[in-house]
Design a protein that fits this description.
The complex is a heterodimer.
Chain A (H helix, E strand, L loop, with lengths): L4 E2 L1 H6 L6 E5 L7 H9 L5 E6 L4 H8 L3 E6 L11 H8 L4 E4 L2 H13 L3 E4 L6 H5 L4 E4 L8 E6 L5 E10 L4 E2 L5 H8 L2 E10 L13 E2 L4 E6 L17 H10 L3 H10 L9
Parallel strand pairs in A: 1-13, 2-3, 2-9, 3-4, 4-5, 9-11, 11-13
Antiparallel strand pairs in A: 6-8, 7-8, 9-10, 10-12
Helix pairs in contact in A: 2-3, 3-4, 5-7, 8-9
Chain B lengths: L8 H12 L5 E4 L4 H13 L5 E4 L13 H8 L5 E4 L3 E3 L4 E2 L2 E2 L7 E2 L6 H7 L2 E6 L7 E2 L21 E6 L2 E6 L4 E7 L5 H7 L18 H15 L4 H8 L5
Parallel strand pairs in B: 1-2, 3-8, 4-9, 8-10
Antiparallel strand pairs in B: 4-5, 6-7, 10-11, 11-12
The chains are: A alpha/beta, B alpha/beta.
Chain lengths: 274, 248
């Protein structure tokens, strides 16, 4: 069965307002073209999940007013500094937060992919993260002779995993390389939407070297070909980041007006106010 | 182009961290950590290759094949001896705050977030706290948000924790039983009074505090040569500023 090949705008239209949406960190090849398409379609009320942290993708979505709730271990532009619209939105109380820690995001997605209600995780005890995560519970390890408190995390099952990858075939198989969390995200999510650098002929699953790093078409609801789809972020194993473009964003997004000007310069006009 | 002259502050920090890593099997460095990354590369060089290092963000020096979760899994497996954590705020009991100041969630100043600190601080035996900025804004009496606690009560599974705090001014050793820092050395040109004036928490201080050893000329040449070239793969901006290394 052939995959559904869509335009990036049509792909973004498949993500409904209010959806929980998982996106990988900037360094993992973030779906930046799809994020811009989401903003252009005026997406709103999203529960955005950073796997396990976000950078430019998260700051753009938050700045555009598309996000109701952010769940993740951080939002930062790394060497380029703080994420300006995230910081402003937190200070203004414009987004709700589920502050987490990186391995908790990974473990909760693993619970999701196994169809388990929760996953235990070491650490976390005595933190203010735990104090504010009323959805997390602490129990005593039932296998210990006594005591041994351990934190339980409810499974994360995103409505959508939005992924950018190096290549897909026309059957809908997606080669992800060494970014294994993309596989976990696809397993845990109800549906996975993918942009790729290129769509290739043949069957990626038929290649013994590629198959172990491939998301089978089983999980994939739609694919859009977007060459340079991670820019201005880097694409692992592909191209480097566009430092000048990221610096331009950092300068622009220092104010709300500057952020709107940045979107306008990219030619993004929102269909409706978020 | 090669850098000349006496050791600069960053080079003293790199050499100091490398000494703290002597004799270990495996050290990893996290996001935005050029100085620990360079120190790990130096320590590996010194160990004759016995020290395994994992520099997050590097392709050549991050031998993982199971995605972002693998660093955390190897920590839980006991395969990671040392890691680095920082914080927007650090207090005298080694609690660290990576979330923000003021009333959560509407913090006045929002930091990026806790990353893996709430987990790795518990599981990695030798966590080196590292923060170049040593001011009362960072070194506070009590953090406003605990991303990860310096110590845990009896009965909490915690094979890991802090061994000390390295700043732009000094090196503090941490005593987990006493829950206190001791000033162990001040960097060349820094006085104990200066450290005291810049620190918002109490710490123990011996009558005479030695100076942090500056790297010898051979170590300095290593840092400015092969180590600078190697760290440029992951931190090109840092390598260019420090060592004049041009990105390949």
């Amino acid at each position: 069965m052939d995959a559904r090949i869509l335009s990036v705008d049509a792909l973004a239209a498949e993500i409904p307002d209010g959806a929980s949406l998982a996106i990988v960190r900037d360094q993992g090849g973030a779906p930046m073209a799809a994020v811009r398409a989401l903003i252009a379609r005026g997406a709103g009320n999203l529960h955005l999940i950073g796997v396990p942290v976000l950078g430019l993708s998260g700051d753009l979505l938050i700045g555009a007013g598309a996000v109701r709730l952010y769940e993740g271990a951080a939002v930062t532009l790394g060497e380029y500094g703080p994420a300006p619209r995230f910081v402003a939105a937190v200070r203004a109380g414009k987004i709700a937060l589920k502050d987490s820690t990186c391995p908790a995001i990974h473990a909760a997605l693993q619970a999701g992919e196994k169809g388990l209600p929760f996953m235990p995780l070491r650490g976390i005890l005595g933190t203010d993260i735990l104090k504010h995560r009323t959805d997390w519970k602490t129990i005593d390890n039932p296998f210990a002779k006594s005591g041994d408190p351990i934190v339980l995390l409810p499974a994360i099952k995103p409505d959508v995993a939005l992924i950018h990858a190096p290549k897909a075939d026309r059957l809908g198989n997606v080669w992800i390389g060494r970014e294994r969390e993309l596989l976990t995200m696809a397993h845990a999510a109800k549906t996975t939407l993918v942009t790729v650098e290129e769509i290739v002929d043949g069957d990626l699953m038929a290649d013994e070297a590629l198959a172990p790093a491939t998301i089978p078409s089983l999980y994939v609801a739609g694919i859009a070909e977007t060459k340079g789809g991670a820019l201005p972020n880097a694409m692992p194993g592909g191209y480097g980041e566009d430092a000048a473009a990221i610096r331009d964003y950092v300068r622009s997004a220092a104010s709300e007006a500057g952020f709107e000007g940045y979107l306008a310069r990219l030619g993004i006009s929102r269909k409706r106010a978020a | 182009m090669s850098v000349q002259g006496p050791a600069r502050r960053e080079e003293i920090l790199i050499a100091t961290i490398a000494r703290l890593l002597e004799g270990l099997r495996h050290v990893a460095t996290g996001a935005s950590s050029p100085i620990p990354g360079a120190a790990a590369l130096l320590a590996r060089h010194r160990s004759g290759g016995r020290l395994r290092i994992s520099v997050l963000g590097s392709r050549k020096n991050a031998p993982f094949s199971n995605g972002g979760v693998e660093l955390f899994d190897i920590a839980a497996q006991g395969r990671l001896d040392a890691f680095f954590l920082g914080g927007g705020e650090i207090d005298g009991e080694a609690n660290i705050n990576l979330v923000g100041t003021g009333d959560y969630p509407r913090t006045d100043v929002r930091f990026p977030g806790s990353f893996g600190s709430a987990y790795l601080y518990f599981l990695v035996p030798r966590v080196i706290l590292f923060r170049e900025e040593h001011t009362k804004r960072v070194m506070v009496p009590r953090v406003s948000f605990i991303s990860a606690p310096g110590t845990s009560p009896e009965g909490v599974y915690r094979p890991g924790g802090p061994i000390g705090l390295l700043t732009g001014l000094c090196w503090f050793r941490f005593d987990r039983a006493k829950k206190r820092f001791t000033l162990e050395s001040v960097h060349p040109g820094v006085g104990v009074d200066e450290v005291r004036a810049a620190t918002g928490f109490d710490f123990d201080c011996p009558a005479a505090v030695p100076s942090t050893p500056a790297p010898d000329s051979e170590t300095l040449a290593l840092i400015r040569g092969p180590i600078g070239a190697e760290i440029a793969e992951t931190y090109p901006a840092f390598a260019e500023r420090m060592f004049g290394t041009k990105a390949a």
